[in-house]
Predict the structure.
Amino acid sequence: MISIVIPLYNEQETIPELHRRLTEAMKNVNIPYEIIWVNDNSKDNSLNVMKSFAEKDAHVKVLDLARNFGHQVGITAGIDSAIGDAVILMDGDLQDPPELLPEMIAKWQSGFEVVYTMKKSRKENALKRFAFHSFYELMQRFSSIPIPMEAGNFSLLDRKVVSVLQSMPERNRYIAGMRAWVGFRQTGIWFDREARFAGKPQMTISRLINFALDGLFSFSNAPLRLATYVGFGSAFIAFLGMLYVLYAKLFTQQALLGWASTILSILFIGGMILLTLGIIGEYVGRIYDEVKQRPLYVIREKIGFGKAGSSEQGARSIEHRA
């Protein structure tokens, strides 16, 4: 059985076309499947559209989260409720083409336990293309594990891989990095990423920056090493300055006039201290999130899970029933 997990936020215009193309793609596979839509507290009519499809199509199930928990946690909620032998993760804006699912499933049937996808091209503006490319370059250079370039969430995970992901409790989640960390037999498929089918892009530059910070601090100690290098560099520069001052005082007639050098030195050292404290603060903040041990997400309602083949609630959530 195949589980297809799709987090959705304000995608009411896209859902009908998404359902049509998913259904067409899975007709060619001839394997039982379920579609799990995770409503991340959409503000438009997305939830009602999802419910209408769940009433008409036994394959469709809906998780309605109690508030907006974010894209990565939405994926996690779907994974926890999926019962398939393989779980496919994809976005709901149709930039991840459902027509690629048969090829991904064929790779899985041939023995691969993780099938990820990589973008050959993007139909987005130049600034966003540069931002995404910079993000993947940053992760590849500084991550403690190798993460393929241009490999996002769109992927297929074998049940063994899903079980490992479910055992990973971290709150600040970067699914692509976690997928790379678990290992197993992995392969990639290249594709051309289309423009959004409808609506406004959810991944803004500011969100991408926050996403990059989560990925970097979750899978790399490079920022802490950077703070150490900055400290050594500042101390070395200060030592050279001290030697110059002593030399000028003892062996020349030149006097160091004014306060400019003193003020600049203080500003430089102060800036480096604040930078270092900021980096440490990012790690401490993430430790604080982990220590609180709050549930990853809260489920307001589950639709369609009473059907044959439904799954139980994920252990890392709280389900609220009115």
About this structure: Residues 260-292 form the longest helix (33 residues). Confidence is low (pLDDT under 50) at residues 308-315.
